Amino acid sequence: MKLTIFSVFIFLFIIGCASKKTSNPAEPQRIDKKTVGLLPTEKQPELVELAEFKDTQVTGVTVSEEGRLFANFPRWRDNLPFSVVEIMPDGSHKPYPNEEWNKWDGKPTSKQFTCVQSVLAHKNSLYVLDPSSPKMKGVVGSAKLYEFDLKTNKLKKTWTFNSDVAPEKSYLNDFRIDEKNQNIYITDSGTGGLVVLDLKSGTSKRLLDNHPSTKAEDVTLTVDNEDVTKQMHVDGIALSKDNKLYYHALSGYTLYRVPASALNRSGRNETQLVKSIENLGETPAPDGMIFDEKGNLYMGDLERNAISYRTPKGDIKILIQDERIKWPDTFTIDKGNNLIFTDSLLHKAPVGESAEGMTFKIYKVSLPL
Predict the structure, then answer these.
(1) How many CB atoms lie within 10 A of CB 6?
(2) At 12, is the pLDDT very low, low, confident or very high (cuts 50, 70, 90)?
(3) What are the E-state strand segments in 2-78?
(4) CA quadruple 216, 220, 222, 226: dihedral positive or negative?
(5) pTM for this prediction
(6) Could you give phi then psi for residue 20, rounded to 5 degrees?
(7) Which pLDDT score is estimated for 28?
(8) Cβ contacts of residue 342 below 8 Å, gap of 6+?
(9) What would the pLDDT profile of 31-60 be if each residue is shown by its tens digit?
(10) Quick one: pLDDT at residue 42?
(11) pLDDT tens readout for residues 287-337
(12) Distance (Å, rounded) from C-alpha 11 to C-alpha 213?
């Protein structure tokens, strides 16, 4: 009889503990760096080096429909030799569109880059985003977006962002082109916010300035066993085939999504826009992001020396994990179904510090068929 009472007590105790354990489903679950994604026994695609740059930190990369490869280099330190280059098939490079555009006289001038953060080839154009904030110390002049004609390599159009859209402490970072709605969406990692540029009217607006989805989370990233304490706001951005904008703070683990239509409709009152934002849960902490044709969302997995991806079902997997991948930054996909990305080593060469003696590389890796 005593044994029976004891058994019942133990049973009720276990049930009670289980109830307590599951009573708070909102408890966040951090990504397990060791077990989530690729298993050690799985075959990885080959990591292929396309180009390297000594002493010069590369952040952005893009490939055109014709296979032309471009890269950019932000003015995060003195004596930057170029801002935008075209990379030849043999790995060599030349300033784009010419040497004059890549000169710097210490202040913003007409037809010269100031501090280029990202490039994007789209149809017959190359778009160049210039947040105009050397060493991230504040906008000088105005942030700009340039469009170059890839057939003639001549400047086609310039959009200038005023201080309401790109204030002094802003740092326009990455962008995507919405062909359907004729808009360009830009992240601001400096103060946290999204910029929408209307290509039809040429006007732009700033959104979600005060929303947590565009702000850094209270986390410390660990990259190559080094703590990254600088808090960086919304950075990675990608546009899905069903016209939804995905975005992610660099210092953070949460992925957000919003319909592009909601961004287009939103005015000064953001009540409806905020209601349409979806929290998609946790992912690895990324820098760049891009969708493939199958709807997989690739992300730079900073803390695991890896490239990870989120499937259309929401599963997180690892494409490749390699010690040579230090800080996967910006992505582009070529016609051969290869993911091309820069390795900016931002944790080793922070803004304003020397990059002398360092080598920055661009890699490619084949995507799943």
Answers:
(1) 10
(2) very low
(3) 48-54, 60-63, 69-72
(4) positive
(5) 0.90
(6) -65, -35
(7) 45
(8) 58, 59, 60, 61, 71, 328, 329, 330, 360, 361, 362
(9) 555 444 555 556 889 999 999 999 999 999
(10) 67
(11) 999 999 999 999 999 999 999 999 999 999 999 999 999 999 999 999 999
(12) 44
Question: Using an 8 Å Cβ cutoff, are 114 and 104 in contact?
Answer: yes
Handedness of CA 250, 254, 255, 259 (dihedral sign): negative
| CATH superfamily of domain region 56-366 | TolB, C-terminal domain (2.120.10.30)
Return the structure tokens found at 274: 């905020």
Nearest C-alpha neighbor of 340 from the set 364, 368, 314, 317: 364
- The domain locations on the chain are 56-366
Those residues whose C-beta lies under 8 Å from the C-beta of residue 302, and which sit 6 or more positions away, are 221, 223, 284, 285, 286, 287, 327, 328
Residue 302 has phi, psi (to 5 degrees) of: -65, -40
Per-residue pLDDT band for 268 (boundaries 50, 70, 90) equals: confident
**Distance between CA atoms of residues 34 and 288, nearest Å:** 22
